[in-house]
Structure formats: structure tokens, C-alpha cells
Specification:
The complex is a heterodimer of chains A (202) and B (163). Chain A is α+β, with helices and mostly antiparallel strands and 202 residues long. Chain A has 2 domains: 60 residues, no CATH class; 124 residues, no CATH class. Chain A has 8 helices and 4 strands; from the N terminus they run ααααααβαββαβ. In chain A, helix 1 packs across helix 4 and helix 3 crosses helix 4. Classes of the chains: A alpha+beta (202), B mainly alpha (163). Chains A and B meet through helix 2 and helix 3 of A and helix 1, helix 2 and helix 6 of B.
């Protein structure tokens, strides 16, 4: 089955889609069931989302992405990922400097920072032996209550990323490069809760 | 997904919109999806007529000083909860959800309302439990009589139109 495009989901969320088609027909119902419509309406997106876990998750993520604190952050990550490699390196470097500052503010310095297992997440497989650059970008993150931890753990490992924390305020930080963070946030299991930790600096 | 499953979803969405008191959908659309879902014209007409009867009763109560359209939502939820096979586990789940203070006010959008309808099916909740969900004491007998009146009126109108 095919799915409505992101722009369609955004329009649905914003309430700018037409309410219904001029007329429903058996052919249109079949196209809707197959997800191949090109002119989605509000009712049709609602019906698709009601039966498609993937699109429901995409829709929820769109809501998060339009929150004021995530939009610039994700936009910059996307922009950085789309840039030529050399420019990305400059962005990462600038991000790293900001991370170093943020890390000092948060825990008094990255060198002293212990790598902890988040409370209540016993299956989260963190490896303190993973070698990170001296100051990899870090992102304050929160977890979705239904996150499948085994799968998250595999993602972290394969992306050479790590979750550290909690700090005194119970916050967790995802440490890794912009690509790791972007992919993890796209998974909808982990969300960025603020942009202070350097990933959005250029 | 086959068109029949889609039609079933659509019918749930119509009910969900009614639960949210957003009743401005087209009754023609209800007919189309009922016919897509039910091969038998007779059954399709009955489903469409039932939804139209809820809508008509809501309109009637809206124009009455003593009436409240949410009472119709209560009847709708009661009927949904008594449809399908009885599910004791689901009923128990609802009892604890109600003990935690769940009401319709927690429902924010059409998808949550559709989930509610699916969760209610087979739960066979009591009049009191339905009252807790809608946040008011509702005399379901009285309101369902009004729905039945509207249903009979619609049926009669269709027969007269056909004849």
C-alpha cells in the first residue's frame, strides 16, 4: 500500500485540505484503499491514518517538528545533511564547539561525565567503549513511553551513538553526529526536547 | 486494505465525528460508504438510516431547551459498547479506565474518538458507566426512544419516496 505524501499530512494537520471529494465512487474508494490518490481530502487522509500505524506516527512526528523548539533544529540538521561534505564538516565543527560549552554548563565538563544507564531502561544497550570525537554533538532527548528498547539499542549501536544520563535534573543526552540524531528522531521513539546542546549551531 | 475494510473505517469515522459533535458531514457520503461496506442494500440502508437518525435526534435536541446533543452521544456509545461479541477483558479495562477518571473531555481528535469507538465495541458498559464517560447522567431509554422515532420517520420517508 502507498501512503500520502508528507505535504499532504502537513496540510491535513493544518486543516487546509478540502473536506471531501466532489463525489465518491468505487474506483476512488479502491484508489484510496491502495493509497494511490493524488488529490487527498480531509476525510480520506483521516481514513488512511486511522488504519495505518506508520502514517499515524508520521503525523504525530509532524506535530513535534512544527513545535517551535524543534523546527529550527531539524531544519538545520536537514540542511546540513543536504550540503556538500566539506560544508557539513564545518557545521559539525561549529556544533562541536557549542556542545563543549553546553556540556560544561550541564555537567561541569565532558571529561568528568559518567556514562550511565537511564533509570528504568534496563535493556538499553549502551557501550561506553564507543570512541566519540572529543566533543560530538549532543542533543537533549526524551523517550516515547512505548519505545521498543531493544530496537533503539540496536539503532544506537549501529549509528555509533550513545545516550547518557540522567543528569541531576533527570535529563538524557543523545551523543552522536547530526545524522544519528536525525535518524533517531525520525524513528519517533526519541524526541529532542531542546536545542541548547549545540546540534543546531552553525 | 480492501474497500470493505476502508468503508468500515469510514463508518467509524462518521461515528467518531458525531462523538466530537462535529455533525456537518454529508449524509450522502454515509450512504455511499454503507453501500460499499454492505453488499445487501437493505443492511446498507439500515446503517445509513441509523446514523441519520442520530444526527436528526441531535438536531432535535439542539433546538430544545431541555435537550442536550451529548445525550445522543451517550446512546450512540451505549449501542456501540453493546455491539459485537461481549469481551469481559475489555469491560474490565473500561472499569479501571473509568475509575481513573476517564471522560470524553480527554478525546482530542477524530482518531482518538475512532479508537474510543473500537475500544468500546463488545465492552457492554452499563448506563452509569456511559454517563461517566459523557460526564452527565443520561436517561438512555428516553433518548433512545427519540432516536427510534427519528429512525422510523426516515424509514417511512424512504418508503413514501420509493412509492
Amino acid at each position: 500500500m502507498r501512503h500520502p505524501r508528507r505535504s499532504v499530512l502537513r496540510a491535513y494537520r493544518e486543516g487546509t485540505l478540502p473536506d471531501r471529494p466532489d463525489a465518491w465512487s468505487r474506483e476512488r474508494a479502491e484508489a484510496l484503499a491502495a493509497g494511490t490518490l493524488t488529490d487527498w481530502t480531509r476525510w480520506e487522509v483521516a481514513a488512511h491514518v486511522a488504519t495505518c500505524t506508520r502514517c499515524r506516527r508520521r503525523l504525530a512526528r509532524l506535530g513535534e517538528a512544527t513545535a517551535p523548539w524543534t523546527l529550527p533544529w531539524l531544519a538545520r540538521i536537514r540542511a546540513a545533511l543536504q550540503r556538500p561534505r566539506a560544508t557539513t564538516a564545518v557545521w559539525a565543527l561549529a556544533g562541536a564547539q557549542a556542545v563543549a560549552i553546553a556540556a560544561i554548563l550541564l555537567w561541569g565538563g565532558p571529561a568528568d561525565r559518567p556514562v550511565l544507564k537511564p533509570d528504568g531502561l534496563p535493556t538499553l544497550n549502551q557501550s561506553s567503549s564507543v570512541a566519540f570525537p572529543a566533543a560530538s554533538p549532543a542533543y537533549s532527548v526524551a523517550f516515547e513511553p512505548d519505545a521498543p528498547w531493544g530496537e533503539v539499542s540496536e539503532w544506537l549501536h549501529s549509528l555509533n551513538a550513545e545516550i547518557r544520563g540522567p543528569d541531576e535534573d533527570g535529563r538524557y543526552v543523545l551523543v552522536g553526529d547530526g545524522l544519528s540524531a536525525d535518524l533517531l528522531v525520525r524513528s519517533a521513539w526519541i524526541r529532542c526536547v531542546d536545542a541548547a546542546e549545540g546540534g543546531d549551531e552553525e | 486494505m480492501n474497500p470493505e475494510a476502508l468503508a468500515r473505517t469510514m463508518l467509524e469515522l462518521f461515528l467518531a465525528e458525531m462523538v466530537l459533535c462535529r455533525d456537518d458531514f454529508e449524509e450522502e457520503d454515509v450512504k455511499f460508504w454503507s453501500e460499499t461496506y454492505h453488499d445487501e442494500v437493505h443492511e446498507a440502508s439500515a446503517v445509513a438510516r441509523e446514523i441519520s437518525a442520530y444526527l436528526a435526534t441531535k438536531r432535535r435536541l439542539r433546538s430544545s431547551r431541555a435537550g442536550n446533543p451529548r445525550n445522543v452521544v451517550a446512546v450512540l456509545l451505549y449501542n456501540v459498547s453493546h455491539s459485537g461479541e461481549r469481551d469481559r477483558a475489555r469491560r474490565d479495562g473500561w472499569q479501571s479506565r473509568l475509575a481513573d477518571g476517564f471522560t470524553l473531555d480527554a478525546i482530542g481528535d477524530v482518531h482518538e474518538a475512532a479508537d474510543l469507538i473500537r475500544d468500546l465495541r463488545g465492552a457492554a458498559l452499563s448506563e452509569q458507566s456511559i454517563g461517566q464517560i459523557v460526564g452527565r447522567v443520561v436517561n438512555l431509554d428516553r433518548v433512545s426512544r427519540l432516536v427510534q422515532e427519528e429512525y422510523a420517520r426516515l424509514e417511512e420517508g424512504e418508503h413514501r419516496g420509493a412509492g
